[in-house]
Each structure stands twice: as C-alpha cells, then as structure tokens.
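Please fill in the sequence for the structure shown.

STRUCTURE ENCODING:
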C-alpha cells in the first residue's frame, strides 16, 4: 500500500520516517467528505453451501427513492424481505453488511433513498406522509407475503405503514415486521440524541439546521437538512472512539498491516459519504417522534388517519435492541410490543443483544453470528408461501 505512494524506483528510502509521513498523508485523505453514493458491490453470496452470483435490478423508482432488488442466480424460492434503510445523512449502502448477510437465506430488496440535494423542486415535497406512502407502495410492489425489516429511524414509519395497511385490511400486509434499534418511544431511557431533540423548539431546528440547495445542483432551491450536520452530530457523540480508530489506522499503515488498515478505511469511506434530507421529513420526524412522542401517545397522524398499531393482527413482530446502544437505548424499540396489542403472543419475539452498540445491532460479528440466526428463524417460522 505505502509502496505505491513511495515507490522504490523514485529514489525515496523506505525508512520509518517516510512510512510515518506516508501514513499521515493517507489518514488525512480518509477524512474527506463526499456526496457520492458508494456502490453496494455485492457480486456473490454463499447460499445453501454454494456460491451464487448476485446482480442489482430496479424493481420500482420514484424521484426520491429506488426500490433495489438483489437478484440471486438461483431458482429456489426464498422469503422476500424489504429492508427499510434510514434516511439519516448516509446512503443505504451503509447497510451493505446487513444485506449481504440477509442474502444467504432471503430474496432481498432495499429502499435506496436518493440524495435530496439532487431531487428537483418540481418533484414536490417529501415529508413523513410521503415516506410512509413509499413504504406501502414498495410492499405492494413486492407483493403479499413480504417480510419488512426497518433499521433505526424508519422503524416508526414502518410501524405506521403496517398499521395503516392492517386498518384497511390490505391484502399485501407483511407476514412479519422486524424493528431494529429504533426510536419507537424515546421517553424511555432517553439518550443524548433524545435530549438534544427536546432541548429546542422546532422553529430553532428550522432556522439553524435547514439550508437551501445551491443553484448548481438538480435540487436547486429545495430546503434540506445537510448530511454533514448529521454526520457531525454522530461524530461528536463518539469523538473519542473515532479518534482512536484513526490512530489505529495510522499505526496499521506504518506497521504494514494492510488488511486491518483497509477495514478501517472502507468503513470511513462509507461513513463519510453524505446524503441530504428533505427538510420537511427531517422537521416532521423531529417534532412527531422525538418531541411530541405522537406514536406512543396514540396521537400520530399519517396520510389523513390516526395511527392504531393495535389494528395489526396478521403481521408477526420481532424487535431487536443493543445493550450498549447510545442512540436508541434499550426499551425504546421493544415499546412496539405493547403498542401492537392485537398481535398474538406466539407471533411476537424480542431480543436484546449483549455487548453491542447501535451499529452492532445490524452489522458486524454479533449481527452475523447471534442476531441474524434469530431473525432468520423468526422470518421462516412466520413465512407464508
């Protein structure tokens, strides 16, 4: 790696001092922010003990989102699962590891949200209602028997969408709904994120955190919550951890530990890829979810209706939390279990994963080895052909 930066033929001695300088330059280069969406890059997956190829297809598309289908070269029918990615300053590719694991045993779709900066103002608004409408549309597109998996922020919208479908006795109600590390009821064990959201009136957020897209972008004049502000907030929450990661990266580069260095570099290449949020969606989410607690208080409105999670009867419910989650603390997601009182007990399950924080709920070794097997078994036990 460093040899590419300081080739022997250039006459530079491969001394420790030069390796340290090269490492410092490379660490600095890794801190660049970008609005470029990374690729998922999932070309193959292990399925039933053999390697099968994977390619992406667009199953549906709106100006604000692409319903992306990961097609496997296999004829074996598997449960179809819609992964609802967060719209929180990053691209859906942040869930690459989640998708890759799910592909072992499932037919996977994901909401690939577009950068609001690049959506023309003429394409209209995008608020909480539009988000929920997208989920219902995509569930309809995939069809009856779909399994829904929402990660973090969209757990609320997912629960709202399924509640609406249940109230209407929609024929495409999902077979199961998995809510992972989400802010269903942020009154429970409030975190720093929750305190921040309640520390200012909603007008303050609109005045200080919303910007207008400049004229050089397709979304010119659209109001957005810039992704770099969300990224800054997340970074400041765990600044010590990020500083330690970059120190480790520097040491690995100096020591020639290329594989370990690449792991850190790949993570931050994804982490620093930012996506702006439509201002309407951001402000409505802050107010209804984090300030007013509308859903747990029975006051949530969406698409002109009051949301009643108790209407859900046909969709099984699995909730997952991380013991050390400092974004959505233990208790906030499992609150959905009590709200969904119409679901029979044998169709409900909850899991708290010890030893993991927020991202460990849906990525990493414990997701692969401990959480995913439980999720897979739950989905397959409630799968309807």
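FILLED IN BY: designer on duty
SEQUENCE:
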């Amino acid at each position: 790696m460093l040899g590419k930066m300081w080739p022997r033929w250039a006459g530079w001695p491969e001394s420790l001092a030069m390796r340290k300088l090269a490492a410092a330059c490379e660490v600095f280069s890794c801190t660049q922010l970008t609005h470029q969406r990374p690729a998922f890059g999932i070309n193959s997956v292990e399925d039933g003990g053999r390697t099968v190829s994977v390619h992406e297809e667009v199953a549906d598309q709106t100006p604000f989102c692409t319903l992306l289908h990961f097609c496997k070269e296999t004829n074996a029918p598997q449960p179809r699962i819609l992964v609802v990615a967060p719209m929180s300053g990053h691209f859906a590719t942040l869930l690459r590891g989640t998708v890759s694991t799910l592909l072992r045993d499932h037919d996977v779709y994901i909401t690939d949200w577009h950068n609001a900066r690049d959506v023309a103002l003429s394409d209209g608004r995008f608020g909480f209602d539009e988000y929920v409408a997208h989920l219902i549309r995509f569930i309809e597109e995939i069809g009856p028997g779909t399994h829904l998996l929402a990660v973090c922020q969209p757990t609320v919208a997912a629960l709202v969408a399924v509640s609406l479908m249940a109230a209407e006795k929609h024929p495409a109600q999902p077979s199961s709904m998995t809510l992972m590390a989400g802010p269903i009821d942020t009154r429970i064990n409030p975190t720093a994120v929750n305190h921040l959201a309640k520390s200012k009136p909603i007008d303050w957020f609109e005045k200080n955190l919303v910007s207008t897209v400049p004229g050089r972008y397709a979304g010119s004049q659209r109001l957005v919550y810039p992704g770099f502000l969300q990224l800054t907030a997340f970074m400041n929450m765990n600044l010590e951890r990020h500083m330690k990661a970059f120190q480790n990266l520097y040491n690995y580069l100096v020591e020639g530990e290329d594989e370990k260095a690449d792991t850190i570099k790949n993570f931050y290449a994804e982490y620093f890829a930012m996506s702006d949020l439509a201002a309407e969606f951001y402000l409505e989410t802050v107010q209804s979810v984090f300030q007013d607690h509308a859903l747990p208080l029975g006051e949530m409105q969406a698409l002109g209706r009051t949301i009643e999670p108790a209407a859900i009867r046909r969709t099984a419910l699995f909730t997952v939390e991380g013991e050390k989650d400092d974004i959505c603390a233990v208790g906030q997601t499992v609150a959905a279990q009590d709200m969904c009182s119409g679901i029979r007990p044998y169709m409900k399950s909850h899991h708290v994963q010890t030893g993991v924080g927020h991202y460990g709920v849906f990525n990493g070794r414990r997701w692969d080895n401990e959480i995913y097997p439980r999720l897979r078994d739950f989905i397959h036990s409630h799968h309807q052909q």
